[in-house]
Amino acid sequence: MPFALYLLGLAVFAQGTSEFMLSGLVSDIARDLDVSIPSAGHLTSAFAVGMVIGAPLMALLSRRFSRRRALLAFLVTFLLVHVVGALTTSFALLLVTRVIGALANAGFLAVALVTATSMVEPGAKGRATSALLGGVTVACVAGVPAGAVLGEVWGWRSAFWAVALLSVPAVIAIARAVPAGAAGAPDAAGPSALSELRALRGPRLLSTLLLGALVNGATFCTFTYLAPLVTEVTGLGPGWVPVVLALFGIGSFVGVTVGGRVADVRPVPLLVLGSLALLGGWVLLAVTAASPVAVLVLVLVQGTLSFGVGSTLISQALYAATAAPTLAGGFATAAFNVGGALGPWFGGLAISAGLGYRSPLWASALLVATALIIGATALGLSRRVRPAATAARARADSST
């Protein structure tokens, strides 16, 4: 893998830390800004909504600039809004900064995904995606637990300052490592924005994006409320929250690494078997959430399965959108953050309904079960359509 790809991963690490760290800070933010825990959980949904809206829009906007220039603009904006977020005492303003930060994050990730896959051979999109998303998983392993520790020791604002400082070396690295002309503004001979948008209507791509949204929704539905689950249901002290988050992050790193190696050669078995195991894991975790040992083991397993299946779906979306080289990353990012927005909302709705802190686990299981049903239906339809299309072509050939 090209060295510049790992430098992009450094920036993704900073952004992933910001996106995920609220799972360890929700209670502290709610207490400090005098809002409920489900309301504080909406900060995660707001970030995801910003990424949903921003990913395709920012991908379109980035067509006007070199990719280095676009990457730097998005990352600097991301850095500045975290400074504002660290200083504010208003929950409403904090919510606004999360949306703006998400727009910048979405634009960066959309451009970075396309840049990363353009650096490797056509059949290595899964490994390139894995290397880039490795920054997200390292954020789960190190950044998010560190943010939780900072929040516990110095308050949640210190975690926001840490993300801003972490973004500085990423800005310098991208400015130096990504050539100004490398994979820059779209080639004049390349597809237009309109032709790329048409290419994004393919049934294979749409079904893959829908499955990704559901699986990612299940992940965020539980991950956002891990802290109160651990302290209120499992009975562990607040000091265990960073440990649980780190276990989830270690699992996610393993999942992305393995998924990246398998996604390019055997994606369907990985998706089918991984999704079935993911469904069973959410159900088992919901049933055994009062057991510290079960929670520690299953959080690790679910992190592995969630990111293994999720990263594979991202790479498959990029394979399915080869005719949309500029916008593919934006729409993949948007689809996955639809899940990132709906998941915490779904979990918060269950908690607000009085169903307790186990309820997001059951909601996650329901989302994965829905994905399995849709995936099986789409696979069955594709197998029916393929022979019919082959027969139609054969008839056309024979008639000529």
Question: Could you outline the blueprint of secondary structure elements for this entry?
Answer:
Elements: H1 3-21, H2 26-33, H3 37-62, H4 67-87, H5 91-118, H6 125-154, H7 156-177, H8 193-199, H9 203-223, H10 226-234, H11 241-262, H12 267-287, H13 292-320, H14 328-355, H15 359-399
Give a structural overview.
This protein has 15 helices and no strands. The relative contact order is 0.16. The protein is mainly α and 400 residues long. The N and C termini lie far apart (48 Å).
**Main pleated sheet:** none
Q: What share of the residues does DSSP label as strand, in percent?
A: under 5%
Rough outline:
globular
The overall pLDDT, averaged over residues, is: 80
**Helix fraction by DSSP (H/I, runs of at least 4):** over 70%
List low-confidence stretches.
182-189, 388-392
Order of helices and strands: HHHHHHHHHHHHHHH
Radius of gyration: 21 Å
What structural category do the secondary elements indicate? Answer: mainly alpha
Write down how many β-strands occur, each being a DSSP E stretch of 2 or more residues. 0
Helix tally equals 15
Question: How would you summarize this macromolecular structure in one to three sentences?
Answer:
With 400 residues, the protein is mostly helical. The chain is 83% helix and 0% strand.
Label this structure with key terms:
mainly alpha, about 400 residues
